[in-house]
C-alpha cells in the first residue's frame, strides 16, 4: 500500500472531490479507501477530517443507526456526488469509514467522542456561563410585574411539561446504549420487520411517507432504537429493564435528590426574603392553611378504627344514600344507580332494584373498610415518623435561636394557641346542645342533650353534659323546616345532626352519648401529660419574668378571670347585688387532695400551673360585692380544700403518714388499695421525680440574673438556718423517745449531706477548692 498526500490540484487531476473551504478538521483517523479512475485502481492511505457541524452529534447515533440496506450503491465504482451537498458527502464518507472499521476501532472512537462530550459539558467555563445566565434570568424575573411573572411561570410550566413528554423516549434510548456497546454487531444487521412491528413503528413515529423523508434526526434515532428493542429476545429485554431499574432506583439517586431539594429550599428562602410585608403575610397564611389541613388529616388518620368509622356503624344506610334515589310522588318507585356520571341498568333495560343497589353499596363499603384496615397501621407509622422528624427539626431550630428570638417565638406561639382555643370554644357554642322533642314546644319546657358536631375536639364530659341551657337562648323554628338558604355548610351539618338525633330512639341516643364520652380527650392520659408539661413550662416562664412582667401578667389574668366570672354570672343567672354566697355547704368526700404543708394563702389557683377545670371552677365576686365586702365568694372546691386541711391537722402522726403514703401512691400511678405494690418501683419513680425537680430548679437558677441569684441564696440560707435551729430544739427536747427518733433521722440526713458535699469537693479543681475554702473561712469569721 502506497501512502500519498494530496493537495487540491492533485486530487482534481485524479478525479477526486475537492473538499470545501469551511471543512475544518477536528479529529483525524486513518482508513483504507479505494478510488476507481478511468484506467487504473489505486489503493492509498486517506486522511479524513469531519466538519464543524458534526462535532456535537451523538457518535453512537452517527455511526450505529445506518445499515447497509440504506446506503446507495454505485456499481460503476464511483460515487455520484454531483447532486450531493457537502454535509451529505461527509455523512456518506463517515458511513463508509464506519463500516470498514474493526470492533476495536469503533469502540475506541466511541470512547473518544464520549470523553470529549463530557469534558465539554463539565468544564468550569460552562458552569460559570450557566451561573451568569441564571443570575441574569433571576434579576429579570424580579423586575417583572405580577402579570408578567404569572405569564412567565405559565410558559415555563408548559415548556417543562412538553420537555418531559419529549424526553421519555430518550430515556429508553439511553438505557439501550450499554446493550449496543456490548453487542456492536446488532448495529450492522438489516431490518427484518414483521408486519405488526412495522405497523407499531409507523404508529409511533411521525413518518408520513414511510421512507423517512418527514422524520427529524431525533425521530429517526428513536425509531431505530425501538426497532432494535423489538428484535431483542426476552432475556435481553429483561436484562435491559433490570439495568434501567437499577440505574433509576431511589438508592442510587438519593444524594442527587437531597442536593436538589437543598437547592430548592435555598432558592425559596431567597425568594421569601425578597418579598414585601404584604406578600409575606399572604404567603404565611397560605402555608399555615396547608399545614393545618395536613395536621387535621394526620389527626384523623391517627384515630382508632372504631372512632374513624363510627358514622357508618351508627347509621349504615348513610353509604346507600349516596347511590340511591328516593322517587317523588308520580314517579316510578325504583332506585337508579349512578357511577362515574353514567346510568347503569339491567340487561332488560330496567333500572336496578333497590335491593341490588344496596347490596352493591354494602360490598363497596366492606372493600373500603378492608383496604383501610390493611393500610391504616402503615400510614400511622409514616405519619408518626414525619411528626417526629418535624419536632426534632423544630427543636434544633429553637436551640439555635438567640434569647430575643426565643422570647418573640414563645410570645407568637402563645398568642396563636390562645386564638386557636378561643376559636374552638366559639365554634362549638352554636351546636353544643340539642333538645329533645316535646308535644308542644311553644308552651312547655324542654330539656337539652348533647349531640356532638363532626370534627369537635374533646372536652370534659361533665362540662358538656351537666350544664343547663335555657330555651330563650336557642332559635326555634315553629314551621318545622330548616331555612337552608342563609345557612353555612357548618350550620347545615349541625342541622342534619340535630335531625338525625331527634329521629333516634332512647337506646340509640344513650349509646351515642356514651361513645361521645369515651372519645373525649380532655380526661385522657395524653391530655393530662400535655397539661403537666404546659404547666411546668408556664412555671419556668413565670419565674423568668421581671417584676413588671409579672405584674402585667397577673393583671391580664385577673381581667380574664373577671370576664369569665361575668359570663358565668350571666349564664347561671347570678344576682349581681346578692350578698349571700351562692353555694351552700355540701357533704365532703372521703378522698381529698392537698399538700403536706398546705398554707392558707395557697387557696388562689396558681397562674402558671392552673388547669382548665381550676380556671372554670374559680368564681370571683361581682363589682357590687367588692364594694360591700372585700371577701371572696368561695367555690365548692375551695370549701372542700379548707375542710381537707382541717381534717389533716386533726390527724395523728400515724394517720398523716398513712394518708401521705396513699397520696404518693396515687400520684405515681399506683392503686392505694392494691396489696401488690412494688416498693422498689415507687422508690424509682420518686427518685426520677426528684431528679426532674432538681433539674428544673437548676435550670431556673442558671437563668437568673446576679441580683436574683443573690436574693435566692439569701432566702435559701435563711431557710437552712431555721431548719438547723429546729433540729437543735428537737435534740434538746425532754421527750426521750421523740428525741431518739428525730436524732436518728437528723443523723441520717446529715450523713447524706456530708457525703454529697464530699463528692462535690473531690470534683473541684485546686483553684476552685481554694476559692471555696476562702469563702467558708470568711463566712465563719463573719
From TrEMBL:
Keyword Coiled coil belongs to the record: yes
Biased composition (Polar residues): 203-216
Residues in coiled coil: 362-396
Compositionally biased region (Acidic residues): 586-606
Transmembrane segments: none
Compositionally biased residues, Basic and acidic residues: 120-147, 217-230, 481-552, 560-578, 644-658
Stretches for region Disordered: 99-147, 184-230, 235-254, 457-631, 644-669, 701-726
UniProt keyword list: Coiled coil
Protein name (record): Trichohyalin
High-level lineage: Eukaryota, Metazoa, Ecdysozoa, Nematoda, Chromadorea
